[in-house]
TrEMBL record:
Span of domain AMP-dependent synthetase/ligase: 86-470
Residue ranges of domain AMP-binding enzyme C-terminal in the record: 531-609
The EC number(s) this enzyme carries: 6.2.1.1
InterPro entries, A to Z: Ac_CoA_lig (IPR011904), ACAS_N (IPR032387), AMP-bd_C (IPR025110), AMP-bd_C_sf (IPR045851), AMP-dep_synth/lig_dom (IPR000873), ANL_N_sf (IPR042099)
Gene Ontology CC entries for this record: cytosol
Protein name: Acetate--CoA ligase
Family label: Belongs to the ATP-dependent AMP-binding enzyme family.
GO biological process: acetyl-CoA biosynthetic process from acetate
NCBIfam families: Ac_CoA_lig_AcsA (TIGR02188), PRK00174.1 (NF001208)
Domain Acetyl-coenzyme A synthetase N-terminal: 34-79
Length: 647
């Protein structure tokens, strides 16, 4: 079950009760005793502002949920305008830190409102309105949250595509969603060098003819090709555009109107467009953000993720801004110009809450604590982790070297599909256990079941499933209802299949054990084995490919590809480089295999199915499972030898 060693986790005995500073935390004793429906009813009424109040809390017709029915609201209004109207216009919404040292900008809520209104009016000029789908392919520049909020203001659903994805990946998302407008930038800064984005967008648009207009944000000085009639520089198009909010009202959206799609990898080659709607999503992310991170007026919050992923949508943009928080937004890499860049940022802005991924923590661990020691990190009050299971060593290192040996670490479990955190400790309530994600949030009803769907006994590993709906739950897969049913609801009818293994201990705390399907998790990025396989076989030299993950100290998992070349040829070092590059071009650099093993044959059962389990075992260098159904058992030894050579 998953990659994690259950025995090692079972023996984890360290315990950290809530520190006294959290005595007045937003979630205190008795928090879990509340009635879930009453809780979500109250949060729905108080956490966000409605143009028309909702009349029904929820409607659950499995596998579809609706929340806050009858309510009308606007996400942008809640994240921006209402704070300005309430007199918080001068509060900093985000401290933006560019990668080039000294390139900084403090954006107040009033500034944010002007920027969003200007962006929305510019979008209007090019025909964007309620229901126009917009793709956003930007790095971590201030215009990224601004563009998202401008879309939300107009009722135009957006999809943000992570800047590391290839032209093919961008085009397939644009086409699947039917986007008419693409927002991108000339280039983004990456380790001191401009990394062109617009040329990638251009290539994508040649395969995405539905894009009428492309708005290009200027970030660097690089020469940028522009296509007349289609492409517009944002600074030119917006130059004489009104930025007065009074003349650009927020579109009243139904609670169940889509807010955005976020594409994520599944177990087939085609990414799924996960649908999130407005009301439940906003209430869900703002509420969990408030309680899990114990948000106060004075909080300086930094989620060091990329907005191109769900973590950035929920916990950089919508949750924190809805809560009127001051955040940090950082454009670049953690080691530019030096490995203490993050700690310099924490010290300068006085960050009180830091939220990041285990892979980043392990990277800092590898660099050593001396980089953190160069800075005063005493402002840090709370630490968060997300994206993959966190190993207890990394957890303890994080608390010790970044959290000054006092800050609680909340290990938050959730997914693109869940929209919001579902399992997490609460800093004022939970006794923390390194490696455990703690308890389900209010109203969340997970269960761990065996192959037949029966609950396992405490301590045993099984499949994690979810029963009752939660506000930010996905509303389906865009354009593919049957895939929605097949992926999540067919294995154990009536239960949502998460795709992760888990176990629950005697206290009711959850320990996540990694994916149980063909989805890999590399540096917290979800990548499908099938997606990488199809990118590989797309290369004309490749006959067959099978992909699996092996454990990796830094990235959590690393991709191993077994490849059979056409004509039984042997692969050269050059072939390795070419194939890795091919995968980067088809999907993105994040999907490049760490190892490629060339083999004259892949191990198959007599009925011709590739034995992935076996390949995974070889990749993990673990014990081999049953090989008796193998058509040609000698293949295994051959692959083993070659794998050892390729490692
Ligand atoms: C994994 C990211 C263990 C898990 C928010 C899940 C985690 C997948 C944790 C979702 C955690 C995320 N502990 N595993 N705290 N958080 N995961 O859609 O396998 O990019 O199914 O959403 O990441 O990844 P996604």
């Amino acid at each position: 079950m998953g990659d994690r060693n259950i025995d090692a986790l079972l023996s984890e005995q360290r315990r950290y009760p809530p520190p006294p500073e959290f005595a007045d935390a937003n979630a205190g004793p008795g928090f879990y005793e509340q009635d879930p429906d009453a809780f979500w009813e109250r949060e729905g009424r108080e956490r966000v502002d409605w143009f028309t109040p909702f009349s029904t809390l929820r409607e659950w017709t499995p596998p579809y949920a609706k929340w806050y029915l009858g309510g009308k609201l606007n996400a942008c209004y809640n994240c921006v305008d209402r704070h300005v109207e309430a007199g918080a216009g001068d509060k900093v919404a985000f401290h933006w830190e560019g990668e080039p040292v000294g390139d900084r900008l403090a954006v107040t809520y009033a500034d944010l409102q002007r920027r969003v209104v200007r962006f929305a009016n510019t979008l209007k000029k090019i025909g964007v309105g309620r229901g126009t789908n917009v793709a956003i392919y930007l790095g971590m520049v201030p215009d990224l949250p601004v563009a998202m909020l401008a879309c939300a203001r107009l009722g135009a659903p957006h999809t943000v595509v992570f800047g590391g994805f290839s032209a093919d990946s961008l085009a397939s998302r644009i086409n699947d969603m039917g986007c008419q407008v693409l927002i991108t930038q000339d280039a983004s800064w990456r380790r001191g060098r401009p990394l062109p984005l617009k040329p990638v967008a251009d290539e994508a648009m040649t395969n995405a003819p539905g894009v009428r207009r492309c708005l290009v944000v200027r970030r660097t000085e690089v020469d940028t090709p522009m296509t007349a009639g289609r492409d517009l520089w944002y600074h030119e198009a917006s130059a004489h555009v009104d930025d007065d909010a009074a003349n650009c009202p927020c579109e009243p959206m139904d609670a169940e109107d889509p807010l955005f799609l976020m594409y994520t990898s599944g177990t087939t080659a085609k990414p799924k467009g996960i649908v999130h709607t407005t009301g439940g999503y906003l209430v869900g992310v703002a509420t969990t953000h408030h309680y899990v991170f114990d948000i106060k007026q004075s909080t300086v919050y930094w989620c060091a993720a990329d907005i191109g992923w769900i973590t950035g949508h929920s916990y950089i943009v919508y949750g924190p801004l809805c809560n009127g928080v001051t955040s940090v937004l950082y454009e670049g890499t953690p080691d530019f110009p030096d490995k203490d860049r993050w700690w310099d940022i924490v010290e300068r802005y006085g960050v009180t809450v830091l939220y990041t991924a285990p892979t980043a923590i392990r990277t800092h661990m590898k660099w050593g604590p001396e980089f953190a020691r160069r800075h005063d990190l005493s402002s840090i009050r709370l630490l968060g982790s997300v994206g993959e299971p966190i190993n207890p060593e990394a957890w303890v290192w994080y608390r010790t070297h970044i959290g000054g040996g006092r800050a609680p670490v909340v290990d938050t479990w959730w997914q693109t599909e869940t929209g919001m955190i579902l399992i997490s400790p609460l800093p004022g309530v939970s006794t923390l256990k390194p490696g455990s994600a703690g308890r389900p949030f209010i109203g969340v009803t997970p269960s761990v079941v065996d192959d037949h769907g029966y609950p396992v006994t405490p301590g045993e590993g099984g499949f994690l499933v979810l029963r009752e709906p939660w506000p930010a739950m996905l509303r389906g897969i865009h354009g593919d209802p049957s895939r929605y049913l097949a992926t999540y609801w067919s294995r154990f009818p009536g239960d949502y299949l998460v795709g992760d293994g888990a176990r629950v201990d005697d206290d009711g705390d959850y320990w996540l054990l990694g994916r149980i399907d063909d989805v890999m998790n590399v540096s917290g990025h979800r990548i499908s084995t099938v997606e990488v396989e199809s990118a590989l076989v797309d290369d004309p030299t490749v006959a067959e490919a099978a992909v699996c993950a092996r454990p990796d100290e830094l990235t959590g998992q690393a991709i191993v590809a077994y490849v059979t070349l056409k004509g039984g040829r042997d692969g050269s070092r050059q072939a390795v480089a070419t194939l890795r590059q091919h995968v980067a071009e088809k999907i993105g650099r994040l999907a490049m295999p760490a190892n490629i093993v060339f083999t004259p044959e892949l191990p198959k059962t007599r009925s011709g199915k590739i034995m992935r389990r076996l390949l995974r075992d070889i990749a993990e260098e673990g014990t081999l499972g049953d090989t008796t159904t193998l058509a040609d058992p000698s293949v295994v030894e051959e692959i083993r030898t070659r794998a050892a050579a390729a490692a």
